[in-house]
Amino acid sequence: NTLEKQLNKIFNDDNKFLTDFEPRINLSEDENNYYIHADLPGMAKDKIKMEIDEERTLTISGERENIYKNNNDNSRKEKQENEKEQTSTTTTTMDGIEMEEDQKNNNNGHKYSVMECSYGSFSRSFTIPEDGNIDNIQAKMENGVLEIIINKIRTQKSQTRSIQIQ
Predict the structure, then answer these.
(1) CATH code, domain with 147
(2) What is the pTM assigned to this prediction?
(3) Mean of pLDDT values over 114-136
(4) What is the pLDDT of residues 31-44, one digit of tens each?
(5) Where is the composition biased (Low complexity) (predicted)?
């Protein structure tokens, strides 16, 4: 019980939900294209926004919604206060720890001690090189990975020609 109390102080509910989401990015290129790959697990493509400005800055933004109830949510705090006014029963869990019924039902009956997944709003910006064709950017989302392909504009290789001097 002492160890659990110490762990609860470290992993209290307020700390579990204070993570910021910053998607991991891979940048690469080949002879014909520039590529941006963004890991966006659990996100649908309609939750992602992409914009490019006059200065050739591509911005990817969105929000990975927390699938768990946030302890900082005022509506949840109000609900908890209302539940405390009602009669609560005590239940013993599988590990022998007693908790009130409304605590047990928190987050669909799960009691979280570690949350490594991040949630929240994000925004990442990239400057597109001068030889990148900003008029024909392609993007697709598959298995939680956003792939952006920017075609390179092929520049004419200068050919040597003679100029006659007069």
Answers:
(1) 2.60.40.790
(2) 0.60
(3) 90
(4) 999 999 999 998 99
(5) 87-96
Of the candidates 70, 60, 37, 31, the one whose C-alpha atom is nearest the C-alpha of residue 141 is: 37
- The 10s digit of each residue's pLDDT in 27-77 is 999 999 999 999 999 899 999 999 999 999 999 999 998 876 544 444 344
**What range does the domain containing 38 cover?**
3-68+112-152
Q: Cα 22–32–124 angle (5° rounding)?
A: 15
Dihedral angle sign, alpha carbons of residues 77, 78, 81, 82? negative
CA–CA distance, 110 with 112 (Å, rounded to integer):
6
In a domain, 79, yes or no: no
CA distance to 38, 112, 137, per residue, from 51 (Å): 15, 37, 11
- DSSP state for residue 45 in the 8-state scheme: G
Query: Which amino acid, one-letter code, is at 137?
Result: I
The two tokens of residue 27 are: 């940048």
Amino acid at 133: N
Token pair of 74, please? 């005022």
DSSP SS3 for 102? helix
Do residues 105 and 88 lie in contact, with contact meaning Cβ atoms separated by under 8 Å?
A: no
